[in-house]
Specification:
alpha+beta; Arc Repressor Mutant, subunit A; 5 helices; WH_DNA-bd_sf; Plasmid_replication_RepL
């Protein structure tokens, strides 16, 4: 693998023309690094498709949380009863799923809201990820200070 600039890598065989210099480079694939600003980072996208095919009620709850969270702050405002109704699962399944996700560090929970770990999924820049990580770490504590 050879690197022409810090943001472009060239791999394998094929043809690519550098638009700035007119130089032709033989490659299989051109990979460019781009800033994440405005992109949604989803590390488990491929796994989610697999889990969807496998089925499972707990997965339906997890999928609903990811798909319906607020894109601004990575949270879903809902109750277990409402989540049960929306996912057509039992409240026990919802509670078990929430407990598993919390134990795995994928979510934080407070009364009436769930926040997804921004390392799992978020939309925005590196700065927004840092901001969301700070909010995630304090998310469940906010409930006890608001009472």
């Amino acid at each position: 693998m050879s690197t022409i600039s810090s943001d472009t890598k060239f791999l394998g065989n094929g043809k690519w023309v550098n638009q700035d210099t007119g130089e032709m480079i033989e490659v299989n694939e051109v990979v460019k690094r781009v800033p994440r600003s405005g992109f949604e980072i989803t590390y488990l996208t491929y796994f989610m498709d697999l889990f969807d095919k496998l089925g499972g009620q707990k997965y339906q709850v997890f999928k609903y949380i990811i798909e319906n969270r607020s894109r601004d702050n990575n949270t879903l405002v809902t109750t277990n009863k409402e989540l049960s109704r929306l996912t057509k699962t039992s409240t026990k399944t919802v509670q078990d799923t929430i407990n598993l996700l919390k134990e795995a560090g994928l979510i934080e929970r407070r009364m009436g809201a769930i926040m997804l770990n921004p390392k799992l999924v978020h939309r925005g820049s590196n700065q927004k990820e840092k901001y969301l990580l700070q909010r995630f770490e304090a998310f469940d504590q906010a409930d006890s200070t608001e009472k």
